[in-house]
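Follow-up to my post from last week.
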Amino acid sequence: MTLTAAPDTGERKARKSSPGAPRTRRSGRLRRISLPYLLLLPALLLELLVHLVPMVIGIAVSFKELTQFYIRDWTTAPWAGLDNYSLAVDFDAPVGEALLNSFITTCLFTVLSVGLCWLLGAAAAIFMQESFRGRGFLRTLFLVPYALPVYAAVITWAFMFQRDNGLINHVVHDQLGLTDSPPFWLIGDNSFVALLVVSVWKGWPFAFLIIMAGLQNIPREIYEAAALDGAGVWQQVRRITLPSLRPVNQVLVLVLFLWTFNDFNTPFVLFGEAAPEAADLISLHIYQSSFQTWNFGTGSAMSVLLLLFLLVVTGVYLLLTSRGRKASDA
Amino acid sequence: MPSQSRRQARSPMAAPQSFLWSRRIFLTLLAGFVLLPVYVMISSSLKPLEDVSGKFQWIPTGLTVRPYFDIWETVPLADYFMNSLIVAGAATVCSVTIAVFAAYAVSRYTFRGKRVFTVTVLSTQMFPGILFLLPLFLIYVNIGNVTGIALFGSRAGLILTYLTFSLPFSIWMLIGYFDSVPRDLDEAAKVDGCGPLGALFRVIVPAAVPGIVAVAVYAFMTAWGEVLFASVMTNDTTRTLAVGLQGYSTQNDVYWNQIMAASLVVSLPVVAGFLLLQRYLVTGLTAGAVK
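User reply:
Got it. Predicted complex:
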């Protein structure tokens, strides 16, 4: 690779059309090399300040005994070696046990939520691929959960899930008579279901949006050819639409996975500072164990473990899906 | 068989009844699911407090607009509103400007480290917010102690944080948009004597307005809806809506009708903006994300 930062294409063309002034071209060369870096500088600096430097500090803090006494100057906190980590992964002790419980809950929640979001998004996008009356209106309507601010939407769901004055119990208990007494939704085991419903409601429009965009890239001619060969609509969906969506799905599922796994806002607004055990998602769990005990060292160790897990999963996922794609191309 | 309309994307064959009925049933149920909370929000915001404290009623009996006046009294909602507006507005403007420059560099130049840059910036999206919440909190507190610049608890700190949240995705989307603007256009502008920045602002930016609008909407929504950092990084005077809305629950009473009214009021700016501009966002995603 050369160092010259020439514009990708068109450079030669531009040279041909302006034959004069070789000197300005040479002196402009240095400027041209540094120009892209100058343009990137603000973005780079900010990403460094808010994401990368904190991450490095977070890793350092995870090896320290950082309690509230050292917050004013975290560098003076005593080193703790691997103590924070051994505390976090000691699954027989309360701290480790709670973390493991939260991790398993989060995994189960993420698989279910991502699966349902994809299913609803894909079904809606495929059903709406062909135009019909009211399609534009429906599409706008379906994007409402995505557009609503998280706290406004989730707080409404929290109201609906109230035991005594919520809509859900009014339907389930009063109108349908499915339960003997109105159940709690935001405490106890039911809270997992409540969280899942809210998460799917909020998350599926994004899958819908992306899949809809992906569908627009499938050439019409393929469908026409299939129709000439006698393939029905259902067959076209199975044989053409779904396979064509593969590359879109690869990215979409990964993004949905990361967002859902890291979701903090939904459980935080739905349950408040402390989530019930059945719906104790990992982000909220770490937040709570850091800011209630003011022990940042252990919280950071948990965060680092979480990051490692996400990196491994992402790496394996990308490896598996790209290999699968190559194999199917061959 | 000719298609009925130009926009019809699929199946020149007439769809069978099974498909049409599945579609009707599925989309109706889905619309119901989507609308349910919206209906609850609107109807409950018009009920008196006794009605939202007792059994839920599908059809409100005593309609009142009182909650819409009370919300401004119960908590300083106007202040929160103003804080959110300043923070989200400033974060959007900065984020879009910075993203335009970065996307221009990536789209129009080859340089060493280009791939590293795009991959690094995008991968910051995958980090859990909780991972850098604690260190960022420490950094802001320490910067404040050392230099006297109050980032912790201030709007500036929140703006700085939020603008980096939307930055990666904005850059990514704008690269796609800029790539779709023909290079001949900015080459021609350069031949006519425009510098690289002239070409950017006179040719590329005007041609990519839909993409820039989409990115701005996205950045604004991100900042307007964020909860985690807002709950840690703000104090009484800089509190944003995301945290302020919790003020309607007191020890004794939860003013659900006011919560619903306030939720509706704070949602209106973003929902209206989003629905008006969603067409741009969809094309933006097509250009940027799905390649």
